[in-house]
Structure formats: structure tokens, C-alpha cells
Amino acid sequence: MASRIRPDVQAMRAYAIQDSAGLVKLDAMENPYQLPPDLQTALGQRLGALAVNRYPGARVADLQLALARHAGMPASHALMLGNGSDELISLLALACALPGASVLAPVPGFVMYAMSAQLQGLAFHGVPLTTDFELDQAAMHAAITQHRPTITYLAYPNNPTANLWDDAVIEQIILAVGEQGGLVVMDEAYQPFASKSYLDRMGRHSHVLLMRTLSKFGLAGVRLGYLMGPTGLIEQVDKVRPLYNVSVLNCECALFALEHEAVFAAQARAIREQRAVLFEALADLPGVRAYPSEANMILLRVPDAQRSFDALKQRKVLVKNVSFMHPLLTNCLRLTVGTADENRLLLAALQESL
Question: Domain spanning 2-30+262-353 has what CATH number?
Fold first, then answer.
């Protein structure tokens, strides 16, 4: 029966989720902090009272309003919800799947940009970053002129390199895409840990969308992303959204979190502080290069990524070996910033592995 499956799908490699049982889990850029016990109790009571026998209703609209207020969404813009940013990326590809349409993004970058393009029949064009993981402005402009991409993704900060790209270069790319009639999606998945956002500038352009997620906010298990942009544009993309794609449980968890956003802001602040401590310690390790980060992860280049990955895992610490994702990432590991105790365990294991 496999003959009934598309050949390109058969040739794909499924996204692998690492088994983290019994390990210090620092591989998936998750917020390491759980809700305080009193909020766990309050959330449990609230979820237990939901009418799970009914389809989602007006509370979804309440969540859209709450997220718009939380983000400071500009006037004349609208917001749509997704089951994580992954679904929004897929819906954008679906909505834009005209003959000859394509997606363009810097690489290395988030794997879902290319995967969603392939699955919806769009060509994907990856433009390599420079050796220090900055945007190659000339190469981006050449690719935009050649391919006239329907959608261009700019991750701000980028995954897995964790850096914010130059604002002036980004602006020139946005203008170039606009001249070709394409859309630009600013992906701000790691916004809680970044020193700046594109949000205050997005109103300058009618072809720019901004995407965020609550996963890094602290709700990775809830699966909720949101896309903001000019109202007319969002209304068109929203037409391909599956009915009831956000459950009553997702919705209520997100509303609860936004009502207690000060708790999550404090967690993000603690992660940023730990990131600074971890980066300084990593920079002192011989034979190791740690790259500056504006996210809740640090990209690290070591003499032998596979050997260090295996040695860390033997010492019960799980990170992500990204060295096979792209030639620019040769011998690179991606480390999630954890709690102070988790980071100490990581550093001790890494020192032993080296």
C-alpha cells in the first residue's frame, strides 16, 4: 500500500524526537520552569470545569483579543491562531500554493519552512548565511530577484544560531520582497528572550506578517501559535484554517497564562540571566566556541560534535546535535538554557566530555 503514498513523502525522513527519559532535557528550547503549585491547582480546577463536550466557542475570540493586547498589536491588524507555529507555517504555504509559488529563507534555519513548502507543492530556496551566521545581503537580493518568492521567512532571532540579524539588512530584504509582490513573515518564536522585536516596525509595510508562539513563553505542551498582520491579509489566510483547530483546553490554558503573565515574565528573566552565566562559562572552555544568543539556546562549536553529544548523553544530559543540518553547522551543538542546577550539570558533563 506504500505505492499510494507520494514518492517525495516516502523519501522524507520523519522528524525525530529524542527520548529524554532519565536525562536532563536541554534539547528542545523549552522553558524549564513549571507553574507554581498554587497556579497548578487553580488551572486544574479551571480546566476541569470546561464543557469539553462542546466545540470551542466565544473563548477563542477572547484569546485573540488577549493576545493582541499582550503583544501590542497595531491598529488595522488582525490575529489568527494556530496549533503551534508549525500549523501556521503550513497554512501559509497552503493559502499561497499557486502554480510556480515558492518559499525562501536563510539557512540554516527552522526546518518547517522547507518541509511545509514541500508538502504543499511549493519550491523552497535556502540562502546560506555568512560564516558568522549573518544575513548575506547580496545573496538574499539575488535569490529574491531570481526566484520571486511568494513567502520569505526571517526568524528574529534565528533557530538554531540564536542571533538577531542586522535591522538595516532586514529592511532592505523586506523592501526587495515587496517589490516582487511577495510576503515576508517575521518569525519571533523566541521573542521573550530577545532584546528587541520587529512589532513596532511592521506597520510600515502591508506585506509583512509577524508570527509568535506561546511555546517559548512557557506553554510548549499547550501548542498555540499566533499570526498577526494587516486585517485583509489575515482574513484570507484564515480561510484555510481547519475548523476548531484550537481546543477549549489549549484556549483556556493560554488565557490563564496571560492572566498570570508576570509569572512567565519572571521565568523569562531568569532564563536570560542564566543564559549570560552559561555563555560566560562556555566561553572559558578550551577548544569551544559559544555564539552570542538572543534566544533561550546557545549554539556551541566543539572539536567533535558527535563525540561530545554521546559523552553528554552518557552523563545524563541531552542536547541537540545540529552538526548535520547544514555545512555551516559542522561540529555544532545546540544547548537549551536550563535552570541554574541544570546548567551546572551541563557544564560539568561538557568539561568531562572534552
Answer: 3.90.1150.10
Cα of 94 vs its chain's centroid, Å: 19
According to CATH, the topology of domain 53-259 is Aspartate Aminotransferase; domain 2 (3.40.640)
Q: In a 3-state reduction of DSSP, which class is residue 116?
A: helix
The residues near 175 (Cβ < 8 Å, ≥ 6 apart) are none
pLDDT truncated to tens, each residue of the chain (354 aa)? Answer: 677 888 888 887 777 788 888 999 999 999 999 999 999 999 999 999 999 999 999 999 999 999 999 999 998 999 999 999 999 999 999 999 999 999 999 999 999 999 999 999 999 999 999 999 999 999 999 999 999 999 999 999 999 999 999 999 999 999 999 999 999 999 999 999 999 999 989 889 999 999 999 999 899 999 999 999 999 999 999 999 999 999 999 999 999 999 999 999 999 999 999 999 999 999 999 999 999 999 999 999 999 999 999 999 999 999 999 999 999 999 999 999 999 999 999 999 999 888
The answer to whether the predicted template modeling score (pTM) of the entire model surpasses 0.70 is yes
Distance (Å, rounded) from C-alpha 272 to C-alpha 291?
15
